[in-house]
């Protein structure tokens, strides 16, 4: 853990900068407006779901509870008939943005921590800016961006949304890449 004592400033500073960048992306720029669509007949759907009293959680419908059931006529008919959906039910009321933002900041620190760990084991003290930038930036990109792809593969998230989130991940990764390059131990 000796790398933490040498790299705690760039870990935290780049986390603060990436947090600001993410805030600008979501409050100033509008390219994430296409991530979600308004549900047709929203009020009727909300009323129907509310009456069912579904507890908060992640749901799939139809749900096949075992591989054997995938071939059952009932399940096959449900799949053909549709609709199929992946739904997250959230508890009613306002979303605690403070909690979400704190969790987001902790996530940024964790990604930067691992980028620092990998960088400290692959780039020597005193290395030039570009060497640090490449290793830390690539590592941070993996943490911020590549993790988005399975959401489109397995959960059918729109690929456009995934690509926009990966673009965000690229921007977030550039922050620790530059910060670590600038503040890398000199030897």
Question: How would you describe the overall organization of this protein?
Answer:
The protein has 187 residues and is mainly alpha-helical. It has 7 helices and 2 strands, in the order ααβαβαααα. The protein has helices at 2-27, 42-52, 73-81, 97-122, 129-144, 149-155, 159-183, and strands at 57-61, 85-89. The chain has a two-stranded antiparallel ribbon. Helix 5 runs antiparallel to helix 7 (159-183). The longest helix has 26 residues, at 2-27. The protein is elongated. 20% of the residues are buried. The model has no long low-confidence stretch (mean pLDDT 95).
Shape: elongated
Sheet/helix structural class: mainly alpha
Largest sheet: 2 strands, antiparallel
User: How do the helices and strands follow one another from N- to C-terminus?
Assistant: HHEHEHHHH
Q: Percent of residues in beta strands?
A: 5-15%
Number of strands: 2
Low-confidence stretches: none
Sequence of strands across the biggest β-sheet: 1-2
Rg, rounded, reads 22 Å
Count of DSSP-assigned helices:
7
Helix content: 55-70%
Mean pLDDT: 95
Distance between the termini: 17 Å
Offer a concise description of the structure:
The protein has 187 residues and is mainly alpha-helical.
Throw out a few tags for this protein.
187 residues; mainly alpha
Set out the fold topology.
Layout: H1 2-27, H2 42-52, E1 57-61, H3 73-81, E2 85-89, H4 97-122, H5 129-144, H6 149-155, H7 159-183
Antiparallel strand pairs: 1-2
